Every structure is written in C-alpha cells, then in structure tokens.
Amino acid sequence: VELSNENISSSAKKLKTDRETSVPEDPNIGYRILNFLTVFSVLSECIKCKKCDSDVRFSIESTRGLGFKIVVSCSSCKPTFIPSCSYIKTAYEINTRFFFVMRLLGIGLRGAMKFCGLIDLPPTVQQTTYDMIIDNIHSAASSIVQLVLKQAVKEEQQEITKQNSSDDINAKSYGDEIEIIKKECVGHVQKRMGTRLRECKKKNSGIGGKNKLTAKFVDKLSIYYGLAIRRNSNSKDDMKKAI
C-alpha cells in the first residue's frame, strides 16, 4: 500500500491546471518525536474507557516505515485505531515527507536507515518502496517546475506587453515640442535585404552561379548593407551614398 501513486497523479493534474496554488498553514499541525512506552504508559493510568469505565491500554500495529497505528483497547469494547499521521491514499504521509527531506539533505536510503537506527526510530521502508516514493516526489516536483515556468513565461509576456504599451504612452512624456521617432531595427533591415536577394536568385536562375550572386556573396552584401546603415545613421544622404 505504500507504493500507491494515485494521489500523486491527481495532484500533478491539479498543479498543471491551477493558475495559483495556495498551501494552507496550521501552526497546530506538526510532528513530534516521543517515546511511546513512556508517554502512553502514563496515559493508561490517567484514562478510562467512557463506555465501560475499564482501564485503557495502548499498543502499536500496522507499522510501515515511520508510520503506524495506535490501538486503544479495553477489556470490554472494540479497539479503536488511530493513525500516527495523515494518509496519502492508503500510504502514511510521514514516509514521503521524511524521504523528501532526506533527499534535500543529500541522503539516500542507506543514510536514512543509519539515521533511524542511531536515534532508535523504526526501520525505514524497503528499497522498492523507497524507489516508488522517490518517483512520486519527482513526479510532483516536475509538475511544480512546469507550473512555475509557465507562470514565469506568462509574467514575462505581460511585462513585455506592459513595457511596449508604456513606450507608446510615453512618446509625449518629453512634451509636444519633442517628437519621438522610432527607428527601424538595422538587423531586421539587413536580414530582409538578404532574404530579398535570395528570392531574386531563385526567380532568376541566370544571376546565380560562379562569379555571380552566390550564397556567400549574398551574405557579404547583407553585412555591407547593414554596416552602411549603421555607420551613416545620422545622414540619409551619406547612407544612400554608402549603399
């Protein structure tokens, strides 16, 4: 059951469609490390069953990795099962959270097993389960990356549109006496020159070939055309003469 990845897939679909994803925060929700025997042996002495007024016992079952169920039982009533953490479908959420943090710290399964052994935590999951958890984390992380990248592209496009609009609006920012003249991009003009020459060469087969209008010569003409414009941008007559 720890291998379940259905919830990851549904989360990934939501991340791909939602424009904004908000993560709720609750300061009362968190994890604590405690000694089960020390804590629950004291609780057993303080608590009685509300139904039969008998003593209550606490035990553990369904342990999978760091997740488990607390069994609350008495001499007369049916036992009550309390999961130690929330579920991701039928899998304990703590295992995914634990290995996600381990990977952020650069620690793999072996290191995680050593960590748990040193502080007397239960043994971690097996290799196959670990691999599935890592695949699920990768799937979720990839979806988030795609979401962030799409949002970044959208914001960049909006910024460009806003900037272009601002340029048009600010054309009169210097007063009516100063006219803002938008110049044509020399690179685009140079490129169009090369395109026109190549089209002319295709339509007129006689002008191409050796010692004529070759592809290399077209490139040279385009570059020269661009240089002539750049070097004489302040004088139309000088530009015409250079061309």
TrEMBL record:
Ranges for region Disordered: 1-23
Domain Mutator-like transposase positions: 30-168, 170-243
A Pfam match: Mutator
Biased composition, class Polar residues, residue ranges: 1-12
Matches recorded under InterPro entries: Mutator_transp_dom
Protein name in the entry: Mutator-like transposase domain-containing protein
